[in-house]
Design brief:
By secondary structure, the protein is an alpha/beta fold. The protein is about 50% helix and about 15% strand. The longest helix is centred in the C-terminal third of the chain and has 15 residues, at about 185-200. The protein is globular.
Amino acid sequence: MTIRVLIADDQELVRTGLGLLLGAQPDIEVVGQAVDGNEAVALARSLRPDVCLFDIRMPGLDGIEATRVLAGPSVDDPMAIVIITTFDLDEYVFAALRAGAKGFLLKDAGSELLAQAIRAAASGDALIAPNVTVRLLEALAGAAPAAPPPQPVDPLTEREEQVLAKVALGLSNSEIASELYITLSTVKTHVASLMTKLGARNRVEIAIWAHQTGWMRARPTGDGD
């Protein structure tokens, strides 16, 4: 399957570079490019790409607002959006994830990580640059939620709790499969079940739930770590 990608960045050189990097991947096709957030939203709605790759700082509508329009909590059919930026600022990370982004990368991430983020977003997963993930999880561990997080609609199974712990530590599906000695498809099944039970839209929100409810601090030991 070819993943269709829309790129939005106000710098032509950056758009061209990202297009060349992604175009070199056998399973990725760049179907459109936008110079600002307003054009990005219009093209996304008309082209319906599998993944949108948005810069943050753009004239008119910025990347975070464009993400909220296309993938925010009130959107019935949210699109998969990855934010890519030069600015490694925590407030940008939180804002992007709250707006509905499925990934957050820095522009120096490299072609391999960029392609991984696109593929993850297309498959419903979320990928955040590793150095950003560590800081994000540390912040979540010490943050109090604005409102009590919802409890699971059904009790979690023992295996779901094991997978939840790994997701909350920032591990990818492949890493979880390796550590728990289960197949990749089994991990995906458990992650999907966790999303349903926790009311989460993606694995980032699963991790947020685990930290902000205090579940990570309170969970019993001996769960396969």
